[in-house]
Sequence to fold (108 residues):
Amino acid sequence: MLGDVPRTDAYRRAIEAQAAGIKDRVVMDVGCGTGILSMMAARSGAKRVYAIEASALANDTRAVVVHNKLDNVVQVVQGLVEQVTLFLFIYFFHPQFLGRSSWETWST
Fold:
């Protein structure tokens, strides 16, 4: 992908165009390869990026992320996405419960 400048540039423009939707979000890049898309997401304001790579390329990707000073946002994880375990704290909102008090929701 790195050698395909038009494609990489198109991805960069698309990610930058969605920066408002990426800002402060958690992103997962499955099959991240060199991590170029992960780093683009980080530069577009993602709070955390999980870059999942099954191959040993993950080691080089970590070094590239550190070199670009994005290791505080991008976490490279080596493994198959089906087998990777990430411990995440998430906020869960269900539209059915919006506008109701917690007591009403959990006491019914």
Q: What stands out?
A: Residues 49 and 74 are 5 Å apart (CA to CA).
